[in-house]
Design goal:
Two copies of one chain form a homodimer.
Chain A lengths: L5 E7 L5 E9 L2 E10 L7 H19 L3 E5 L7 H19 L4 E5 L1 H9 L6 H11 L9 H18 L6 E2 L1
Parallel strand pairs in A: 1-4, 4-5
Antiparallel strand pairs in A: 1-2, 2-3, 5-6
């Protein structure tokens, strides 16, 4: 892990729910700064929902000033329509980061799960349990989207610790 | 068409080439203000390419101050990976417009082709020819991506003329 404190944000983008998790990495420990979800009201026009995702994320980036944003590699999706929607949310997140000079790194879901639980095929509940343990949280991080985002941030912290090029700056 | 001059931008987003076409609609005529393509260098990281699309589009919106941005409805795509990439470019374009309070309307490709050529299945060259004619351009608008963007802007202008709800604000 780096000598200087480093702030990392993990983001799990989605049109309905965008999970985020922000951690600070200091010498040998990681602790949580913030986590949660952006949930644009479903009755709004889809473009207004993307604007809410953008504005909310911008707010988080401006408050916490992370150096790196970690995001999941997108391999597959249910269908082309949902892939386009996911891509739109992802594009919004990437632009919010890049406009502030924040590096964007991506990790495969398997890699993120393995980094926190040792098992690339861990269940959602196992990931939540390990994130809780690694970050000394009082309860399981909820919802899953926020836990996944914290796992991505932890994955990036661990990747730096072992000086492994697990993540790809995209 | 509206009584007051109205500026409309059509955008055909893509990771490699994002076409744009900006027209001004006054009483009974449409004329072109600008058209072309944003082509982020292919050797750059994909996130830097999206940042270039965002910044370039932002520049165009700030110069021309359109009231409406017209974009193509995305129905299908070759595969899920390219759908995610297209979605990312689309998300970037939508956020650039919505952050400025610009309405985003979408038209199906068939509708845009029919609006300019009378034929929803017109070829690329037919669309270019009709866009040239409708906007009194000296030569065929090139490349196709820019012609498609101009066709989208014209489609929105025509839709207003006939007071038809052809486009859907999204």
């Amino acid at each position: 892990m780096p000598d200087n404190p480093e702030i990392i944000i993990g983001v799990d983008p989605g049109t309905n729910v965008t999970g985020y998790g922000i951690i600070i990495v200091e010498s040998s420990s990681c602790s949580v700064l913030d986590f949660g979800c952006i949930r644009p009201p479903a009755h709004l026009k889809i473009t207004d929902r993307y604007l809410i995702i953008y504005n909310s994320l911008e707010h988080l980036l401006d408050i916490h000033k992370p150096r790196v944003l970690a995001i999941e590699t997108q391999f597959v999706h249910k269908n082309v329509q949902s892939a386009i929607k996911l891509g739109m949310a992802r594009g919004v997140v990437i632009v919010a980061a890049k406009r502030r000079g924040i590096a964007v790194v991506e990790y495969s879901p398997t890699r993120a799960k393995r980094a926190v639980s040792g098992n690339g095929h861990a269940s959602k509940i196992q990931v939540q349990g390990m994130v809780q343990k690694l970050l000394n949280l009082e309860s399981l991080p909820e919802p899953e989207d926020a836990a996944d985002a914290l796992a991505l941030a932890l994955c990036h912290a661990h990747s730096q610790r072992f000086s492994q090029s697990l993540g790809v700056e995209i």
